[in-house]
Task: inverse folding
């Protein structure tokens, strides 16, 4: 085995042969939107993201399903599975079956197997002094989902949040070439532990991180919903877990107090966080921006004590 739990790796890695590394992951979620097909798309994109976050390509997927057939029509389940299958096909992988159980609350996700060329794999904690941090999707999905459940998020903002979550983190489509790929030193995706928690996972080897509050891409409507107090419970848990390693510049919180909520927001199918060599950062962000409209250079790594500072 090539990966462990020590730095929150996104999937299991092992050597297949002299040139191939296997990637294996599993992820499933409860409904985050009302539309069953869109839920299936989001859950599949969320699971497939782990393979993309390790530099790999998905090859085979298995459905993981919990569903209450006693009170929900099978047509709803068919829509969920159809949404998931469409994202598996979009990723270039094969759907090869799966397993289902009776469950009072619907749940759906995938087991995904993929591969990456040896020496091309991305790990969570490979950032180097001077690297830039790039985020590919806007933040605020957890707050948006809370507002959706309360019926308070405007429809156009709900649609944008759903599009962001169902978008594959397939960085391969943006045409990163041999001039840029070697400059990517580490990667993870932003999911349940929020931006702060997953960024902190990247701080191995005596690294610290400065994040620019004014550069963080945020979904439309999220600031307004957060100001109304529509905060998911997981946000408070994330702040309790990670807040001790987060420092605020004296004026950062005063400039934008809602950022203190948004950086801890539990995301579903959030964007990739990439540590990129400084000289290649702008080119990488521009390339990623071709398929990820919210892609932004949001911070810098430097030698330090393993903390995150919001500036």
Result:
């Amino acid at each position: 085995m090539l990966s462990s739990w020590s730095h929150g790796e996104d999937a299991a890695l092992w050597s297949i042969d002299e040139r191939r590394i296997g990637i294996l992951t599993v992820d499933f979620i409860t409904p985050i939107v009302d539309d069953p097909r869109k839920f299936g798309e989001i859950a599949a994109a969320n699971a497939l993201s782990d393979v993309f976050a390790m530099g790999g390509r998905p090859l085979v997927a298995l459905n993981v399903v919990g569903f209450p057939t006693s009170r929900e029509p099978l047509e709803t389940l068919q829509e969920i599975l159809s949404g998931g299958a469409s994202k598996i096909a979009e990723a270039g992988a094969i759907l090869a079956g799966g397993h289902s159980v009776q469950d009072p609350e619907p749940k759906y996700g995938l087991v995904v197997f993929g591969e990456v060329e040896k020496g091309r794999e991305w790990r969570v904690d490979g950032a180097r002094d001077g690297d830039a941090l790039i985020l590919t999707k806007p933040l605020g999905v957890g707050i948006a989902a809370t507002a959706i459940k309360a019926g308070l998020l405007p429809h156009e903002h709900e649609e944008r949040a759903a599009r962001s979550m169902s978008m594959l983190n397939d960085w391969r489509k943006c045409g990163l070439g041999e001039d840029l790929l070697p400059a990517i030193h580490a990667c993870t995706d932003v999911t349940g532990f929020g931006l702060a928690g997953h960024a902190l996972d990247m701080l191995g080897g005596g690294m610290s991180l400065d994040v620019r509050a004014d550069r963080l891409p945020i979904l439309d409507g999220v600031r307004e919903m957060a100001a109304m107090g529509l905060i998911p419970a997981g946000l408070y848990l994330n702040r309790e877990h990670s807040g001790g390693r987060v420092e605020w510049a004296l004026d950062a919180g005063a400039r934008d107090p809602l950022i203190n909520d948004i950086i801890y927001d539990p995301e579903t199918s959030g964007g990739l966080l990439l540590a990129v060599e400084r000289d290649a950062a702008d080119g990488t962000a521009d390339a990623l921006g071709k398929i990820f409209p919210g892609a932004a250079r949001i911070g810098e790594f430097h030698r330090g004590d393993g903390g995150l500072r919001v500036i």
User: Anything to note?
Assistant: The chain is about 30% helix and 25% strand.
